[in-house]
Design brief:
Residues 1-19 form the signal peptide. Keywords: Signal. This is Lipocalin-like domain-containing protein. This protein has one helix spanning 2-17, and strands spanning 33-41, 44-50, 59-62, 67-73, 84-94, 97-104, 107-118, 124-136. By secondary structure, the chain is mostly beta strands. It has one domain (22-136): Lipocalin (Beta Barrel), CATH 2.40.128. The chain starts with a helix and ends with a strand.
Length: 137
């Protein structure tokens, strides 16, 4: 019996140490928290974790319950001075994909993101925009 218990303990230890390649974490890592776009790329963008959503900046706030807030431009005109507003939405994950359904001034954006990479601390995440659909009001 002791050998079985020891073998089970060792197996459990190694299983808990395995990394979850590409999966989106729900234990305080991405996407939970507040994020702003730090850099735009050809097929996506990089997000940086912030303590709160800064004023007059595009950003995302993800909650554990699958709800989210998007801070985005409040109207169709992007000519400065630009005014920002908060829009509600929801998110879910499926392995390495993050599915978002978020509001904007003209309706809803339905997007799918893929996490391409992140730094060691998880405070900077590079996202590939897999799909994007605009649903007007």
């Amino acid at each position: 019996m002791k050998k079985i218990l020891l073998a089970f303990s060792i197996l459990l230890f190694f299983a808990s140490c395995m990394e979850n390649d590409g999966d989106i974490q729900e234990n305080g890592q991405f996407p939970l928290g507040n994020w702003t776009i730090s850099e735009r790329h050809e097929n996506g963008f990089s997000l940086i974790r912030t303590g709160s959503l800064p004023e007059n900046t595009y950003g995302f706030s993800f909650q554990k319950n699958g709800k989210m807030t998007v801070r985005a431009i409040a109207g169709w005109c992007g000519t400065p001075p630009v005014v920002y507003s908060d829009y509600s939405g929801n998110w879910s994950n499926a392995g390495a994909a993050l599915k978002l359904n978020m509001g904007f001034w003209g309706g809803r954006n339905v997007q799918e993101w893929k996490v391409v990479s992140s730094n060691d601390t998880g405070d900077i995440v590079r996202i590939e925009l897999v799909s994007s659909e605009t649903v007007p009001d």
